Amino acid sequence: FLLLYTLEVSLNLLELNPAYPKDPKTLGERIRKARMDLGLTIKQAASLIGVDVSMIVNWERRNAQPTGASLERARETLGFKT
User: Fold this and answer.
1) Whole-angstrom distance, CA of residue 76 vs CA of residue 81
2) What are the tens digits of pLDDT across the range 39-60?
3) Is the dihedral of CA 80, 62, 37, 30 positive or negative?
4) Is the pTM for the entire model greater than 0.90?
């Protein structure tokens, strides 16, 4: 008599990444979460938004605030809410 069990496990690998903001509170965290949810690198996101890589880094890590057209392009490209 042999019993076989099948276990289905669903993992979001992003949630295991310590850089992934699970509960984003700042605009920079919302930008990072949206970018990571889309599977984009900082370089790819910068290219799509039309800004320099350093801008994305400043938004995500230094809590600099995108403004005007940059904010609008980031919101449209990444699909986050401000």
Assistant:
1) 9
2) 999 999 999 999 999 999 999 9
3) negative
4) no
